[in-house]
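Tutorial, part two.
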Amino acid sequence: MEAEIERLPVDLLAHIFSLISSFRDLAKARGVCRKWKSGVEQSFVRKERLSFAGWKVDDSSATRLVQASYNIKELDISRSCWGCQITDEGLYMISSAKCVNNLMSISLWGMAGITDNGVIQLVSKAASLQHLNIGGTFITDESLFAIANSCPHLKSIVLWSCRHVTENGLFALVYKCRKLESINVWGMRVPVDCFISLLSISPALQIKPLYWPTATALPVT
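Running the prediction step on this input gives:
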């Protein structure tokens, strides 16, 4: 059996392992032999997207995987039914990974255990960020101020049910992120007048899902 394994080139193993989404299976494969270990490690280098959605991971394991995947463009740390255990400490550690400066998409959806501190640390290193989902978190305007100052290429942001965000944070975001095309504001405690003012700053901005009192919808895609 070992002789058969040795015939497989590392590049081929890396390609095969890159098709496996189960971190548990990859961990088992990594322990088969040195060549498989190298193949698993190279498979993470090839990834352009890394998702922890559906997996129970902690700060340390998530950080190791992100640091190994230094070519990724998309990072999904959404909360899953299994209860992702990443905290502000994890976001601090992840922010030091080489890939963060090149990330174009980050999702922290539903991460109720994180605060402004962790979000600010992460986004301050994500200069290439275009898409951000921080819906279902307890972030405040402080996170939006940091995003406005650090992410000039931002195109879309999901603030679903971010009830501690006020119009001050939204204005800062729209003023400074001039490429912003879409904001999801479902469940936010912000008056409609605020959204009307945002459109006066950026008429092409899509605010969704939101409806005028007369039932005329704002632009939604």
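The first strand starts at residue 49 and ends at 51. In part three we will examine how such features are distributed along the chain.
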